[in-house]
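so my prof wants the structure for this chain in the tokens format not the other one, which i didnt know existed until like an hour ago. anyway here's the sequence
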Amino acid sequence: MARVKPFEAKRIVRSQYLVKFSRKPLDEFDLRGFVLACSETLTLLHILETSTYTLNGYSVIRNEDVSLYAVYDRPDYYYESRVLRLKGIKPQPQPEIDISNLPALLTSVNECYPLFTIHREEISDAVCFIGRLVGMTPKTFALFEIDDCGEWEREHRYRFKDVTRVDFGGGYEEALALVASEDARKKKTRRKHDG
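here's what i got, hopefully its the right format
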């Protein structure tokens, strides 16, 4: 097990060590990944999928929800660190994402990625919502949602204070974006031929 230490964000970001975050009771599953950036309220992770030992997108979590974390700071000692070293896995650079606050985060993610996922785990840990940002007020934002078949559904408004986690750039978001893009091209082609 990795050692739990005081959170030294700058050192952890520079070192590119794997970090495990526990957010219990909010989420029963731990998140493992590389810390890419931290603000006073948010932390950006490049997520490690531990079932396959592959990197799978990014997550931003609220710092207030972290109940425990562990830094895998001995690359030749911890199993997970050794696997990463042997597979040559390191965090990948990503576009500049603003994690100063949630509105800035959603705006910058929306500019860089076709879809993102929001979690509201204090309300329901079994449901997440995926889509594109289409509007914002000081306390809320509107998400044009996509369903699990890649079809655009509806616009729904959420409160910033309810969002506990934001995911983007992962395999699932990319798959939905591909299907939605193909469907949009087909509709455009049909309209061209019909018109």
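also thought this was worth mentioning. Residues 171-194 form the longest helix (24 residues).
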